[in-house]
Amino acid sequence: PAMTCAVVFAYHNVGVRCLSVLLKHGVDVRLLLTHDDNPNETIWFGSVKALAQKHRIETIAPLDPNTPEVVDRVRAATPDFIFSFYYRAMIQPALLAIPPRGALNMHGSLLPKYRGRAPVNWAVINGETETGATLHYMVEKPDAGAIVRQQGVAIGPDETAFDIFGKVTDAAAAVLDAALPALLRGEAVARPQNFSQGSYFGGRKPEDGHIDWRKSASDIHNLVRGVAPPYPGAFFDLQGKRIKLLRSRLISEKHMDTTSAGIIELRGKLHAVCVDGSLLELIEVEVAGERVDADRFYALFGVQSHAQKIPFDPT
Questions:
Q1: In sequence order, which residues have a C-beta less than 8 Å from that of residue 97 and are 6 or more positions away?
Q2: Which pairs with CB-CB distance under 8 Å and at least 24 residues apart come from 146-150?
Q3: Residue 159 DSSP class
Q4: Parallel, antiparallel or unpaired: strands 278-287 and 290-292
Q5: What is the pLDDT of residues 239-256, one digit of tens each?
Q6: How far apart are CA 267 and CA 265, in angstroms?
Q7: Residue 86 phi, psi (nearest 5)
Q8: How far is CA 75 from CA 6, 81, 85, 241, in A?
Q9: Model pTM greater than 0.85?
Q10: pLDDT tens, position by position, 286-298
Q11: Helix (H) or strand (E) holding 215
Q12: Cα 12 to Cα 29: distance, rounded to the nearest angstrom
């Protein structure tokens, strides 16, 4: 059979792994569209551009992939398929109409749940126990096309979004690897999404990591896990100082005094007493950029007795 050719839009670890899977299956990738790394962003993931260069794949990084010039360039590559793997810009109908055998995207959730942006972070923040990766056809509406294949991954109670992103990346590569033979033979079966079983989520900004101490300990723990480094991290302000809470743990025991929420020291470690009386151990704490232990924390806030509770600022 003639080689199947494709144009690929890709970025991030999912892009690196899924492009590798296409190449392993002998797909002729004629053009790769990616992004230039943002100097203001922590780049903790692999480079799709480097992988493409290694395989001598023509690569471009347009700011907007939907301009007439870029559309013409994609059309000139005469792809059978378009694939999108963690590409960050919306791919408009003019591009989607080019490949006769369809345009497919890999999304980091079990669609129809968590359509939209930052799906792994949102799943952890919302306390989900499972998410996954889904290969689906692209339509004009984001993450809304028919599903070809998906695979779930478990979310443990203390795992961070970074941990889960690693698992989702593995699942994405496995989903594509399993789906490609039928796709290339023209025998893939896709099922439409039932939107009543999921919802759409927007992007997240660093300020969305602000901790609201009126919430339950488990909600706060999930936020901490969902935005932990390399993401921007959860934070709150106390007496004019910015405090980052980078790792926490839910404690099964309740605290006696729930008259006010605040920070106490128990067994030499910092804990938050939350409004529901639950305790949250504050494992990794930074005050004004400095990693601190319990002693240093109390000294910074000028509190002599470690038995004393430091109340949260009124919201």
A1: none
A2: 146/190, 146/191, 146/192, 146/193, 147/111, 147/190, 147/191, 147/192, 147/193, 148/104, 148/179, 148/183, 148/188, 148/189, 148/190, 149/175, 149/178, 149/179, 150/110, 150/111, 150/175
A3: -
A4: antiparallel
A5: 999 999 999 999 977 766
A6: 7
A7: 60, 30
A8: 11, 11, 19, 55
A9: yes
A10: 998 899 999 999 9
A11: none
A12: 18
What number is the average pLDDT over the span 112-134?
97
Contact between residue 191 and residue 260 where contact means Cβ atoms under 8 Å apart: no
By the 10 Å C-beta count (0-12 exposed, 13-18 middle, 19+ buried), 313 is classed as: exposed
Q: How is residue 210 annotated by DSSP?
A: B
Q: pLDDT digit string (tens) for 8-35?
A: 999 999 999 999 999 999 999 999 999 9
29-42 burial, b at 16+ Cβ within 10 Å, e below that, comes to: bbbbbbbeeeeeee
| SS3 at position 191 | strand
CA separation for the pair 205, 299 (Å, rounded): 32
User: Are the CB atoms for 204 and 118 separated by under 8 Å?
Assistant: yes
Return the H-helix or E-strand segment holding 286: strand 278-287
Among candidates 18, 43, 142, which has minimal Cα distance to 32?
Answer: 18
Asked whether residue 235 carries a pLDDT value surpassing 60, the answer given is yes
Q: Which sign does the torsion angle of CA 73, 17, 101, 136 carry?
A: negative
Q: In what order do the strands lie in the sheet with 130-137?
A: 59-60, 28-33, 5-10, 81-85, 103-107, 130-137, 147-154
- Report the alpha-carbon distance of residue 176 to residue 166 in Å, rounded: 16
Token pair 């106490």 is at which residue? Answer: 264
Instruction: From 304, 300, 309, select the one nearest 261 (Cα to Cα).
Output: 309
CA angle 56, 58, 60 (to 5 degrees): 135
